[in-house]
Amino acid sequence: MKVVQEDNGHNPAPAGCGLASLSLDQLVAILQFLPVQSLIAFGLTCKRFREIADSDNLWAYICVREWGRRAVQTWPNHGKERGGWKMVYRQMLMLKAGSWRKVEQGDVGPAPRASHSLYTVADNLSVYGGGCQGGRHLDDTWVASLPTEISEGIVWHRINNGSPPGRFGQSCTVVNDSIVIFGGINDQGVRHCDTWINRGLGSGNLYESPAWELVDVVTSPPPRGAHAGCCGGDRRVVIFGGIGTEGNRFGDTWVLDLSESPPTWHDVITSASPPARSGHTMTWIGGRKMILFGGRGIRFEVLNDVWLLDMEGAYPQWVELRPRELQPLHDRPAPRAGHSATLIFGERILIFGGEDARRSRKGDAWVLDPKAGVQVGCGSSCMPSYPQKPFSEDKLAPRFWKKLKQLGQLPSRRSFHGACALGSGHSILVFGGMVDGELLPGAATGLGFDAEMHMLQLVPCCT
């Protein structure tokens, strides 16, 4: 990597310019802490500042700062050779493409299913529950060690140390090295309101991990299924929405604080809230902030709205997020339910699959950048964001929605599948779900349950 050197041939800046009097090392030390748009603006002022702002060492630092060292180290190398680290930053920001490959699972593994839980703890992958052919629920738990190279495939092992009663449409949340399951529906249509935890999965041998434990909570949300949940930071679990015992859809928010003794569910009251829904997703983006997307509303309509739940302050608040600039309808995901929403590097979310109002399954992939959105009806800033009019120099302007070009062995269109991120957040795994199947007499659409596993790796787009 080459660092730009001082050059006495540059025209001197006016005597009153304090920046011009600083040494190269002093300038670089300052620039390392600037937002990218401010760094670009600095480089537009003069030739000398442009060379400093384009320094390869500086952009290598910016890449690690913005995306994390693990994500940068695992990003494909050819961008560094063609355009240096600034090109790498551009590729990792724009995220134009993802490459699919099928993951081999050996001879024994989980049966075809949908509305199950798929999660990773440390270097282990696990599947619990779900629904299968005939509307039957499943109560099994499977684990597999993740190899260094996923192309080697995985080997599943069934855990026989007890699992919660069978169900599908439950929420499953990873909190540090624990797994928390709440609610769900059994094959008799009964909605659950129980809370289960499996502790210590990140240490020792996962195959000999502690059994699932029923948590004796003080209060509990009403019974439900097809809700969404995620980590809320600080050993918290957050859930929203779902379908109740009478088929009603909820629009409530609940928080479980595992640091309390005994753990307690709290009903969160906010001045505004997303409309009631089911089949949506919630994704933790760090701190005490979560993103909700999509789902099916009370009139059975499907949705594609985006909401931020901010619990950083004394009073939690929901705010709707929208693109900063008007985007055509084809430049944002269509309304859907039963999709997956997985956190990837850069605090962004990868949306895959789902189904529309007619239950037609989808196979598209989108990247959502919450920081590139504007907050609707929120007087104060709820989260860090990009400038209102971001610089477009070098195509470094972020976008609220970005559709991925999909390469490789594309999986079938699907809904109500499981998805989770791998390690550095540059790849996701997708398992199971409902796919197009054989069309039976009298049925509007064919329906099948899947047991395949696929990996989507984010890559530079080759056009």
UniProtKB/TrEMBL annotation:
Coiled coil: none
Entry annotated with the keyword Ribosomal protein: no
Keywords: Kelch repeat
Signal peptide location: none
InterPro entries attached to this UniProt entry: F-box-like_dom_sf, F-box_dom, Kelch-typ_b-propeller
Pfam families (alphabetical): F-box-like, Kelch_KLHDC2_KLHL20_DRC7
Protein name: Uncharacterized protein
Organism: Physcomitrium patens
Lineage start: Eukaryota, Viridiplantae, Streptophyta, Embryophyta, Bryophyta
